[in-house]
Structure formats: structure tokens, C-alpha cells
């Protein structure tokens, strides 16, 4: 039985780099307050970023980041977010809840190609 995309098998070639660091962060801010932070990702995708997903929740905004390495995340935080992150953190209504994850199990989904 073939397990497509399972981490113990070879991941799809050329699709996704290895994942060694991820995080989930819940921040008590409005979606509008999140927008300046999102702008830092729209300009140029930072080296090492695999996935950034964010969306509004009942408590504020949830952010999920998947990076090739923790160092790549920290470089982005220091070099690109810097003052924006500091100003943004000052506006939060409660301390952000940040949970780091160093994955040991990752499943890569496959995307079916469609003809146009």
C-alpha cells in the first residue's frame, strides 16, 4: 500500500522543503491590527518560509508559521519584522500565546493537477 506524502517515504520532489520548525500563535488583536504584520510577508517571501497562514478567531488572530529552520524564522523576525513586531506587540490586549513545534511527523498532501 502506497502512502503518498508520508514523511517516512520520500516527499514529493520539488514541492516542499523539509520542515524543522513551526509555530502557532494566538494574539488578541483585530484583523486590521494584524495587517501591518502581514505586509512584511507580501513584499518578498522570506528565505526559509514554507507556509504562513493567519485568520481571525473569537479572541483575535491565529497565526501558523512553518519554516525550514528555527534560525530562518529568527532571522526574519530580527531583520524584517523588527520595529513592526515591537509596535504591534504593544497594541495587544493580552500577552500572545506562542507555541513552538519541532515536527517529528509531517504528512505532505498532494495536489491534483487539472487541465485548463
The CATH class assignment of the domain at 21-101 is: Alpha Beta
Number of strands: 4
State the helical fraction: 25-40%
In terms of DSSP E residues, the strand content is: 15-25%
Strand order of the largest sheet: 2-3-1-4
SSE diagram, text form:
Layout: E1 21-27, H1 31-42, E2 49-56, E3 61-67, H2 70-90, E4 97-101
Antiparallel strand pairs: 1-3, 1-4, 2-3
Summarize the structure.
By secondary structure, the protein is α+β, with helices and mostly antiparallel strands. The chain has helices spanning 31-42, 70-90, and strands spanning 21-27, 49-56, 61-67, 97-101.
Describe this structure in words.
The chain is built from two helices and four strands, in the order βαββαβ. It has 116 residues and is α+β, with helices and mostly antiparallel strands. The chain has a domain at 21-101: Alpha-Beta Plaits, CATH 3.30.70. A four-stranded antiparallel beta sheet has the order 2-3-1-4. Residues 1-16 have low confidence and may be disordered.
